[in-house]
Amino acid sequence: MKIKVFFIILLSVLTINSLNAQKNNKKITITGTVLNSAKQPIANAIVMIDGEKTNSLTDSQGKFKVKVKPNAAKIGIFTFGSGIKEEEISGRTEIDFNFGGSASQSQQSTDQTVAPGQQGVNTGYSMVKEKNLTITVDKIDGTDKKYASYHSLKEMIERKVSGVKINGNGEVIIQDSKDLFGAVFALIVVDGVSMDALPDLSPTVVKSIEVLKGSAAAIYGSRGYGGVIVIKTKIQNE
Fold first, then answer.
1. pLDDT (0 to 100) of residue 9
2. What global pTM score does this model have?
3. Based on the number of CB atoms within 10 Å of its own CB, is 223 exposed (0-12), middle (13-18) or buried (19 or more)?
4. Cα–Cα dist 173/169, whole Å
5. pLDDT (0 to 100) of residue 34
6. Residue 170 phi/psi, 5° resolution?
7. Which of 40, 44, 71, 225 is 20 to 30 A removed from 95 (C-alpha atoms)?
8. pLDDT averages per 10-residue partition of the chain, 238 residues
9. Could you tell me the residue ranges of all domains in the chain?
10. Are 174 and 227 contacting, i.e. CB atoms less than 8 angstroms apart?
11. What pLDDT, on the 0 to 100 scale, is given for residue 112?
12. Per residue in 75-85, is it b (16+ CB within 10 Å) or e — as a string?
């Protein structure tokens, strides 16, 4: 009888712990409104969580609703034309965004001079302190001798950077980027010149490649929606 009671109590404790674990992992719903500088709603703005795009968009009234994990730290809004803003979640379930104030986080830090010890990322327009980017920028040092045996830019990028696919036309898809109409290709910037596909360059002439994803690419506005690949060649940058 005592053994039976013990197992009943043990089963009850395990059930309670399981329910508590499920409760703690339950997603949180966050709502809010996004307004422009004229306090008008911004429609079709993309909701981002911890630097990653979600499937949530603002409606015609600028309102959004998104479910996030309990451990999510930041929520961001990516807009076409106004850039991006981010807020700490900090337990809040209602967070509004107003683009009438300061510039977006990714646009605030465009210092041409980077202090010693603060590594910079060349976005093509300027140098941005890496610590101010919300996500990591993947870098390839073209001067590394190991790339001398590579046959193409495609091979260099796909082997080094995860989540990147390059089709036969040289068009690049980063992290399976999509919009309502299908795949969104990354913007390619070679020595400051924008293009839609990877050029036919030998890896031996490449000085560096930087792959910007999510909010790190917001400085390019709507053209950076699918991410940006910034290529510097030894020809123009000796």
1. 64
2. 0.46
3. middle
4. 12
5. 92
6. 85, 10
7. 225
8. 59 57 74 90 85 83 93 84 79 90 38 41 44 61 84 87 87 83 86 84 87 75 82 74
9. 28-102, 106-233
10. yes
11. 37
12. bbbbbeebbbb
Rounded distance, CA 32 to CA 93, Å? 8
Q: Can you give the pLDDT at residue 66?
A: 94
Token match 């603002």: residue?
58
Nearest to 57 by CA among 47, 68, 69, 67: 47
pLDDT of residue 119: 44
Q: Identity (one letter) of the amino acid at 34? A: V
Which CATH code fits 28-102? 2.60.40.1120
Tokens standing for residue 198: 């990877």
- The CATH H-level (homologous superfamily) assignment of domain 106-233 is TonB-dependent receptor, plug domain (2.170.130.10)
Intrachain domains 28-102 and 106-233 with the same fold: no
Q: Is the dihedral of CA 193, 195, 201, 204 positive or negative?
A: positive
